[in-house]
């Protein structure tokens, strides 16, 4: 069984190792050491990356009793020099210790337990046994958790047998038996954990809860960031806020009020626009009705629009077929081309059959009912030819 040296020293980033086994893992090269400081994906925490003899380490996984160091190419030699990615290692030390602080803070403030956690490369989450947390709850939890960081408490490690875990007030029961590794945050939190952690809570820097949402099983998922990630997130949002303030020629504290006013103005403008659009469509519908081709008892309207909103085209067709004897043959050319066929209730001609007669010609796909068909098309060049063909078909049915 490989000796996991990262348990003893999470800050060790450079070491020499002896390769005791070479393997292939998912068609990639992998080496196994007798002992390693490389952390494998486990316990909700992702693996280390780095280099072995200058060759990039892509992933680290535990396979039974071995730890596979998966590399970009084959590693030559038996005694090798290893370098762990410093930024990634410390980032996960911050996130994992921060997760312990946050989980216990939620217990202390609200009494809810953490059921699972995930420490991703960009986002960290915990699921707690609560239906939802209020804004006030979130603020209290954040203040409590960051106060623990400011106290700069020591993070201690205890290796104990499972029979002795009663000596420690664990936040949750361990999943494994035998020798256990207990992470203690100086009388504040005790948790069985095999992850990498900082030495003092001050190194976590800050904990920021980004959002929370309800998930299945009446749980709440909390998304959070710690340390460097929280700083980057703050910088990004500060840039956005400053940009908005400059755009609106106002102060950062007044941006929210400014946006609210713009939203309200846009709502009013949208209502006015809808009114004028409706009025315009009324005039357009009358004009199209006047231009209808009279064929026997039918009034046929054939028209091709250019880059028209298909929703407006549909409204026009629906209004026209409210009256008797109308057959509508609309085309629409643009980035998204369409055809629309419709008929009045008293017209017996089947729009589905008309569509089927030209769908291959214009490479159209869509559907509907015998009285109303809408479809997208790929071959725009033959749209007019197709509409004229349909007109001839109608003429034979009149």
General description of the model:
This protein is α+β, with helices and mostly antiparallel strands and 398 residues long. The protein has four domains: 3-84, Elongation Factor Tu (Ef-tu), domain 3 (Beta Barrel), CATH 2.40.30.130; 90-237, Threonyl-tRNA Synthetase, Chain A, domain 2, CATH 3.30.980; 248-290; 291-397, Diaminopimelate Epimerase, Chain A, domain 1 (Roll). Helices cover 34% and strands 33% of the residues. The strands form five sheets. The chain has a six-stranded antiparallel barrel with strand order 2-3-7-6-5-8. It has a six-stranded mixed β-sheet with strand order 16-17-18-19-21-20, sandwiched between helices. Strand 2 (14-25) and strand 3 form a beta hairpin. Helix 1 packs across helix 2. It is elongated. The chain starts with a strand and ends with a helix.
Beta-strand percentage range: 25-35%
If helices are DSSP runs of H or I spanning 4 or more residues, what is the number of helices? 7
CATH architecture label name of the largest domain: 2-Layer Sandwich
Give the name of the CATH superfamily of the largest domain: Threonyl-trna Synthetase, Chain A, domain 2
* Overall shape: elongated
Structural class: alpha+beta
The largest β sheet comes out as: 6 strands, antiparallel, barrel
Task: Provide the number of structural domains.
Answer: 4
For the record, the CATH class of the largest domain is Alpha Beta
Which oligomerization state do the chains in this entry correspond to? single chain
- The SSE order reads EEEEEEEEHEEHEEEEEHHEEHEEHEEH
Low-confidence segments, given as residue ranges, are none
As a percent range, the share of helical residues equals 25-40%
Number of strands: 21
With strands numbered from the N-terminus, the spatial order across the biggest sheet is 2-3-7-6-5-8
CATH topology of the largest domain: Threonyl-tRNA Synthetase, Chain A, domain 2
Distance between the termini: 88 Å
Mean pLDDT: 94
Gyration radius from CA atoms, angstroms: 34 Å
